[in-house]
Structure formats: C-alpha cells, structure tokens
Amino acid sequence: MNMSTADRHANNRQDPLRQTGAQGLRAAHSSRLLSPRMLDSLKNLELVARAMVEGSLTGLHRSPYHGFSSEFSEYRKYCPGDAVKHVDWVAYAKTDRYYVKQYEDETNTRAYIVLDRSGSMALGAAKNHKFNYACYLAAAFLYLMQRQKDAVGLFTYTDRIESYYPAKTSRMHMLSLLAHLESLVPTGRSQAAPCFHRIAEEVHRRSIVLIFSDFLDPDPDFIASLRHFQHKGCEVLLFQVLDPLETTFPFRGLIEFRDLETGECMEIESEDCRPLYLEAFNRAQQSLRRNSARMNMTFETLSTGTPFDRALLAYFHKRERLF
To answer: What CA–CA distance (Å, rounded) separates 84 from 76?
Structure first.
C-alpha cells in the first residue's frame, strides 16, 4: 500500500500546522497538474480579491516591511489613515493632490487553498474523480497567484488537518505545493467544521480562502465554521466539486452502495430511492447557496463532467461581470 506524504505527516504525531510542509519534498520542475494547453488558456487571466478591486479601501494589504526593503510599485490617492511618511510631496506640488507611494508588498494578496481529501472525494472514474478534478483547479489557482506574486498557502483536511504549507510567493514554493498535490490520495472520513475553525485561526486577516470540497457534510456547525473566516475579514470562495452521478442519480434496479468514507455497504432499490435522494440533495444545495449568499461568499458548483479548464474560465468570466 502506497502512503502519501500527507499520510506520513499524520503518522508522525507532529502537528501539521506547525510544519512547513517542505520537508521531504523535492520541487518538481514540471507537473502533470498544469498542462501546456491549460497554461495557454489562463495566461491573460488574473485572480483579484474583491477588496483589491474596490481599491478605495486603505490598509487592506498593508505589509510590515515597508521602506527600503520594499520595491516601489505605483501611486494611489491618499486616504484617511494612510501613513503621512508615504505621501509624495513632489507629486502634490505638481498636481495639488495627495498621493501615496504604494509598494510591491502592499499590492500582493495572501491566499490559502483548502482542499478536502476525504474518501468521498474519490467518487468517479479513476483519472477523473472529484479529488483529481479539485487538484487541477487548485493547481490553476496556484499558477495564477504565483504569476501575480501573491503569497499562497495550502491546507488539506479530512476529519483533521492533514498538511499545511504557509503562504509564500516564490516559484519554488508553488512547485513544492504542486508536488504535494500530486502525492495525495483521498481517504478517510470528513469533518470539516473543526478543521475550518482551526484553519481560520491560522490564516492571515483579509486573505482569500479558496475551499475545494463536495460539501456533503451534515455537521450543524459547518456554517458557523465558515463564518469564522468571515470574522477574520477573509474573502471566501467555495468550489463544490460533484460527480454527475450525485446530481442525477441515474441508477436502475437493485444496487449496492458503499460509503467511501466508512466502507459501510447498503443495498437499495434505486428507482424507489431516486425521488427521495434528489429531494434531499436539492434541499441541501439550496441551503448551501442561501447561506453562502447571506455570508457574501462565492459559491460555485462544478461537475467533473465539464472539462476543468472550461469550468475555470467560465468562473473567471462570471467573476469579471460581478466586478
């Protein structure tokens, strides 16, 4: 039985939230998770946090390393609360307007990818199950953010935090994250709420948090755990990855179903269960959409039946229309 890097982390009794995630990994110089076709389709896209687009807010991405160690990037209009030391008085003399120097460190975003690697994510064809699909999407976002010099971190979870990489900006860091994604196998039970609470404590305030999961979690504390990110001022994007079997329930006759997280088996008459299943599924979906809207979180349902690059491009086009 092959053991993934995350499994080895889980077995050594060290807390993954206190590990860098780089130990024992070699940065790959190429990765199956980012095909040339996909990179070509994404080369002109940017992921921009809502707060960056709104732009008029000040201090949203303030860095503690301003000054000589920061590279000057651009000007922006002075806003109340900005440090006077960054006002460009030469620009003021020429324009009679106050401008402040904005540094490279200020414009960069911190983002965290949170990936569900529990057993339910293994549903689907061998090379196109939900977890593989989620990994492709996560890899695309890693590429886009690294291209923008945004700091990106990674969490994976089941019923506990399995692995953690702090947010960094370097290309080698991105390659380490891709290598880690390639090593993972979905397994075990999922219990998102306690994991989200703990992750929310670790992420920096006003970060972007991208969560990839099937969100098939009946835990009543699930919504409260998402609000924890909101309380940290984070922009949260929920990517629900589902297999067409879950959305249509096309089965016929007497079928034995096996729970991918517990291994429990149950034999049912599929035609009798279809209306009950679809009613419960649609009700849960409506609840997720409603609660996401109330918390001002982006919620996207993606089907593994849709090529992952098309799904990603469709999401970005939709996001462009929002802003």
So the answer is: 13
State the fold for domain 5-46+108-322.
Rossmann fold (3.40.50)
The residues near 51 (Cβ < 8 Å, ≥ 6 apart) are: 57, 60, 61, 206, 235
pLDDT digits (tens, 9 = 90+) for 208-219: 999 999 998 778
Read off the tokens for 105: 């460190």
Give per-residue pLDDT as tens, 24-82: 333 333 455 655 555 555 543 333 323 322 332 233 333 332 332 334 445 556 666 56
* Below-70 pLDDT ranges, the chain: 1-83, 85, 100-108, 309, 314, 317-323
State pTM to two decimals.
0.71
Q: Tell me which residue has tokens 């462009």.
A: 320
Every domain of the chain and the residues it spans: 5-46+108-322, 62-107
Contact (CB, 8 A) for 292 and 238: yes
